[in-house]
Write the structure tokens for this entry.
Amino acid sequence: AQSVAQPEDQVNVAEGNPLTVKCTYSVSGNPYLFWYVQYPNRGLQFLLKYITGDNLVKGSYGFEAEFNKSQTSFHLKKPSALVSDSALYFCAAPPLPARQLTFGSGTQLTVLP
Amino acid sequence: NAGVTQTPKFQVLKTGQSMTLQCAQDMNHEYMSWYRQDPGMGLRLIHYSVGAGITDQGEVPNGYNVSRSTTEDFPLRLLSAAPSQTSVYFCASSPSGTDPTPYEQYFGPGTRLTVT
């Protein structure tokens, strides 16, 4: 089974600064990890996923995530934050063999102008 | 493509009433799911379906029923609404395939339900 945890409920960052949203995972095999974003009053949108291969995964809107097996982490990053990046971010993993997702509790990112 | 659509967007129910939340997708996806979103708890899986005629329970199935008579539609029924079912409900779908690795899910815009 796989599970994920997001240790921070809220992250604030100034516009133009790099941002990191943290996610740790617990797996019993090869991890499959996802990041989704939710803008206010909207459904979730897929950002990126890690299946295998390169530890640095690039996704939509300039986001990337770094898979670190030794630290069991999959942190979401962006080199330069925009005010429009302010949203709720979810890390997720499928409880294999099902395709459905188990979500973290979410991290509210606020980018300050 | 319209993607995943959900109706209604908002609903207020009284305790004990029943209703059906509609979900439809036009992407020919085999997999469909219902989640509820509550503050500080992320999204929790209610029911899911791996294809027409096949459904299964998720993490929090009590008080909800589903059916999957067609590939496109996956309605969620609240049998007797309770205040604890006040939440935002999301439907999602994902493609099938021979690849065993999981695919990303496509989410609808959500239904905000209040039970008084």
